[in-house]
Amino acid sequence: MILLKNYWPYLFTVIILFCFFKNNTKDGIPYDYVSESLVVGRMMESERTGLLSYSGLPGMMTDLSNDEGFKLNSLKQYYLLENTDKRKNFKDFQTYNSQTGGQGLLYSTFNKISPFNLITNIEILKNFTLLINAIMFSIFIGWCKRNFGIIPAITVLLFIAVSSWIWLFADSLWWCLWSFYLPFITMLLGLELLKENTNKILLIVLFSGLTKCFFTGFEYISTTLLAVFAPIVFYYIKDSRKIKDFLLFSTKTAFILLVSVVLEMLVLIFQLKNLKGSYTEGIRHIVDSYNIRTAAVIIEGKTAAISNNMYVQIIIRYLSGDVFSWLKPNIPFILLIFLIFISSLILIKMDYKKYKPIVFSTWFSIIAPLSWFVLFIQHSNIHSHLNFIVWYIPFLPLGILCFGILINVFIERFTKSVL
Fold first, then answer.
1. What per-residue string of b and e applies to 145-179 under the rule 16 or more CB within 10 Å gives b?
2. Per residue in 198-225, pLDDT tens?
3. Beta pairing class for 92-95 and 59-62
4. Does residue 164 lie within any of the structural domains?
5. Residue 35 lies in domain
6. Regions in the chain scoring below 70 on pLDDT
7. 279, 318: one domain
8. What is the pLDDT of residues 66-87, one digit of tens each?
9. Are residues 231 and 191 located together in one domain of the fold?
10. Hey, how many other C-beta atoms are within 10 angstroms of the C-beta on 262?
11. 65, 81, 115 — which closes off a domain?
């Protein structure tokens, strides 16, 4: 009872978010079946040929006599999921070689030990993913409440609950949205609760970085890693720490995050070596995959050349996108960012010293989404049906927190004037 009394707000937040995510994952923005098919295909192949077949890589079961292309083949995975007798005609497996596929391996293991069939297990896993996402966001909302009060926390809760771009990813077995927030949340709580124990904080952040890479590989990797530094900015300003200490801790953090990325690369190279017979092939694939997503050249027709003003065009595209698919008229991201800017400006003018940490860390965090749009411009050019999510890692939640703080200030001042 004591535990329930102390933690009921967190439980309430998890329930609210879970219900919103559960009821809206297939509404508004079309669901990303193509990406998730790589996990569905992996799970079916693991049932047939074993967990580590094709080096455990994600992918799709294919019919060699009738290759219909990536998108049609991906949709075919759901047909095969429902029609087990048809799988015997799909004797080949087309691997997706740009990610180690840890989530597919783990899910396949669960499918092996579960007493239920694959369809039921996938539904269980999707609901479990919804729950983990709800818990991850509730941890952040709890931090907002502890540091800024109930009104800012409720503001962030409502924003996350109704954000259709979060709905898109909420139960995806491929994207594992929570994994993009794990290093950020780990650093946030580490600096709050462990304070001076920097070695323990760094060790936990290393584990969180490895977990992220295990589940989602290099997906949105620059955004995820840069997000980790926003809590560092917040606490080093809040605690009036020296610049020297800030730079030293940031350097150590960058190093351990780099370690997690390098280890992920080594695992992928090893997988591709087992698949293709050569470490050189694995290294070449990683280099080519990076170029396809970043370089100003066309590689095997998979991307378009970057023009001189393409960076500006990409930023404009992601600023003009619709924040809430369910709301008409559309609200572009630029309008929301402008609202956050005005809120931040007012807070700074009201009390510079008090609100400097959250305002500065919020605007520092915008580097995280911009890094993906700029560094991985080819990916952003092709995948604009997905990449708006990087605005939320973690810039928009922090920005909405600033707006919620401002609302709270106005409510407190109004209440005092009335009383």
1. bebbbebbbbbbbebbbebbbbbbbbbbbbbbbbb
2. 999 999 999 999 999 999 999 999 999 9
3. antiparallel
4. yes
5. 31-115
6. 1-6, 27-29, 65-68, 295-308, 417-419
7. yes
8. 666 777 888 899 999 999 988 9
9. yes
10. 11
11. 115
